[in-house]
Amino acid sequence: MTVTDLTLVNRDEAAACCAPLIRETITAADAEALARRLRALADPVRLRLVSIVAASEGQEACVCDLIEPIGLSQPTVSHHLKILTEAGFLSRSKRGTWAYYRLVPGALDAAAAPLVSV
Asked: Which of 86, 1, 4, 101 is nearest to 41 (CA)?
């Protein structure tokens, strides 16, 4: 770490320590909605699916390309994809007999936003 790095760390720590955090508490309804969305992500298989889709070209992947890396049956993978779609993290489009899933722009940031303190 350089002197410049230390200066920036100290400045950032001071700002976080001393800056007033003017935020409202989350309402019960908002907490319930956020908890539903976070529960959709709180599964190792679903986290991997989001990661694979996000890393795919154009942040889009065919369900046929998601089965092997996950190591589960097609119906089970489809079930997890349905949960992620209903929670708003993925969108689905049908092309022929295959379903393609795309990461919804900003969905992960929106889920994390209420948890960020700055």
From this structure: 86
